[in-house]
Give the backbone structure.
Amino acid sequence: MVKYLRRLGHEVTVVTAAPPGQSPSTHAGVVRTASLNANPIVRRAFLRGSERAGGAATQRLAWGTMPAPLWKLIVPDPWLVTWNPAALRALRRLLRERRFDCVITSSPADSTHMLGFALGRDRPAWVADFRDGWCFEPLRPPFPTQAQRRLDAWIERRVATRADGVVSVTAPIVEYFRDYLDVNAALVTNGWDPELEPDRPDGDAAPGGSFTLVHTGALSGPRGRDPRPFLDALRGVIDVDRALVGRIQLIAAGRSEHDEQPLIDQAGLGEVVRLVGHVPREEALALQRSADALVLITSRDRCEATGKLYEYMAAGRPIIALAEGTEAARIIRETGVGVVTAQDDVSDIVAALRAALRGELERRYAPRHLDRYAYPGLAEQFAEVVEQAIERRQRVRLQTGGRPGAA
């Protein structure tokens, strides 16, 4: 998004947190600040020795997931105290050094949006960009007390109604803002960057004559995403035709917070499923393009349309999506890039797999309207939201006699 906004003529500065092991820095329009959750002393205290062993716990804390007590205590999330103070100092310094027309706060974390308030009355225009829901289908666990839940909802409403523009990446979140908060939010979806498509030939996913299914990203994941129905369906297809062993293969590429090998062994698919772990993005894209079919597994949350969906659409291969009732299902049907099944209907998934093996999925593959989900068009839509927010901010200033920041 930033790359294409710059190409449209906008000057963009990104403020984010420095990863663990890196010092705060400013380079090429990116300001990386300190954060407590990247502090090695804090990390060691919370990890209690697991950092030395590596693994998922280290990765979770390294990239910001905090222990459960902090989630239960701090409203709206722990980043309010671990990162926001440093981010606010960086923002204020930037605003003193030069003029900015608009500040965009992007979540998660939800507390990032509170920076819009903290900038004070003389702030520039402010766009609140919701990549996930806040109170609507949140990623974080629920708060234990009613008082916390009320405070959380009050902060969300204040952000949505005080920002000069509100934007989200999925239609259900936009509908929530419009129906429940009476906020005219704009829809600007995620998408793919055509310039990131691999230049090299398609990856060699499996030996010649094999039927290859590819899943990139962790099989298990947030919101209760569960790969077991798909594994059970794959097992069922093979049980009916044992000749498929050695011919059909599922390649799963991606880092996971869970050990998924036991699930595969339990399903009796050790000879069929290959976990390759984290791979460079270029290799993941090449795997997608070489697949006979791509596998997408979602939760039941309506707002879910993971970023890899758009990469799948760009790969030009049919998708088997366990995604009924989600935004991903709507997009797949709208664009004609695959088949949608219920997340836990094994017989439905079996039917989709058999259709793919017979070549029916490939023959029905008829993509359309894909340009709606590609850059630079998405950046143009976002730039329009920014321009409207700037105009709204200017109108408010004129209506209040030019007083700093009345809004």
